[in-house]
Amino acid sequence: MFVNKEQGEQRIAWEEICEIIATRSDQWIGNSIVLLITLNDGRTLTVPEDDSAWHDFAMKLPEHLAGAKPYEAWALQSAFSDEVPRIDVFRR
């Protein structure tokens, strides 16, 4: 998996991911879904839905991470919940 960050593109192995939380970031106009990805070494990456890696990453979670919830199980709840949700998408 590749994630674009200010420091440049970073390659992250699926095996390094220990937790993924879906939440929402309230914007001036509308909301944005954000995935908080915690890695084995304690780092946390943020992947907002406007990131170029978003679509492929979100769709391939169940394929690469056994037990990960499919997109349909968490995306709408993240986007339209009355409160800012913290939805467990994956946990090792």
Structural topology:
Layout: E1 2-5, E2 8-11, E3 17-26, E4 31-39, E5 44-48, H1 54-64, H2 71-80, E6 87-91
Antiparallel strand pairs: 1-2, 3-4, 3-6, 4-5
Distance between the termini: 18 Å
Low-confidence stretches: none
Query: How many strand units?
Result: 6
User: What's the mean pLDDT score?
Assistant: 81
Write a structural description.
With about 90 residues, the protein is α+β, with helices and mostly antiparallel strands. It has one domain. The chain has two helices and six strands. A four-stranded antiparallel β-sheet has the order 5-4-3-6. The chain is globular, with a radius of gyration of 13 Å. About 15% of the residues are buried.
Would you summarize the structure shown here?
This protein is an alpha+beta fold.
Characteristics:
92 residues; alpha+beta; 4-stranded antiparallel beta sheet; two-stranded antiparallel sheet; 2 helices; 6 strands; 40% strand
